[in-house]
Specification:
Layout lengths: L1 E6 L8 H16 L2 E6 H4 L14 H11 L3 E7 L7 H8 L10 E7 L7 H13 L3 E2 L4 E3 L2 H4 L9 H26 L1
Parallel strand pairs: 1-2, 1-3, 3-4, 4-5, 4-6
Helix pairs in contact: 1-7
């Protein structure tokens, strides 16, 4: 099963990307998963003026191929003003619903505060439904990210490892059932 983890923070001083790096590392190490981190900061997508088409920039086409080839997707974003990042929304909107339709999609919200970006997680859950994809019921909210991992994805709080494992196990339960059904 091929998974893509979209890292939705593009700020220079971002902390959430460290959490994404750790989660991907843990998914590979503990669960032997094929997961690719797509760092939207590195992709530097232009503002959406048109959906994917023949004249789209190469970075948009490349991301489209990665998402199309994924069996499952995880969306990760810091909470900005009560929702997920505009960079993540912009990236999602470049592609047709068929890119996401009937795929298992997990959401991860990240915050420097005590609530873990719950409003961003809820907004991403609604987005997943609008894409005609399957959201898992368990949202991962990372509170006080600066106490969990550093900006390079190095674990600071051993309890965070357990929280990641619970989320990944729940995601896999649904993802494996969906992927098996689609391929079966």
């Amino acid at each position: 099963m091929k998974l893509v983890l979209l890292s939705g923070s593009v700020r220079d001083d971002r902390q959430s990307h460290g959490a994404v790096l750790y989660i991907a590392h843990r998914m590979k190490e503990q669960f032997s998963l094929n997961v690719e981190v797509v760092d939207l900061k590195e992709y530097a997508l232009p503002p959406l003026t048109n959906t994917l088409h023949d004249d789209s920039p190469e970075n948009v086409k490349k991301l489209g191929k990665i998402l199309d080839g994924a069996d499952g997707i995880l969306l990760a974003s810091p909470e900005y003003n009560g929702s997920f990042s505009s960079a993540l929304k912009n990236a999602i909107d470049f592609f047709p619903k068929s890119t996401y339709q009937k795929k298992p999609i997990g959401v991860i919200s990240i915050s420097a505060g005590p609530l873990g970006g719950i409003r961003a997680a809820q907004a991403m859950q609604l987005q997943v439904l609008a894409l005609m994809a399957y959201p898992i019921y368990r949202m991962m909210t990372v509170a006080n990210v600066q106490n969990q991992v550093d900006t390079e994805g190095i674990l600071l709080n051993p309890d965070f490892e357990g929280a990641v494992d619970i989320f990944v196990e729940e995601y896999l339960w649904l993802a494996e059932a969906i992927v098996k059904k689609k391929k079966g």
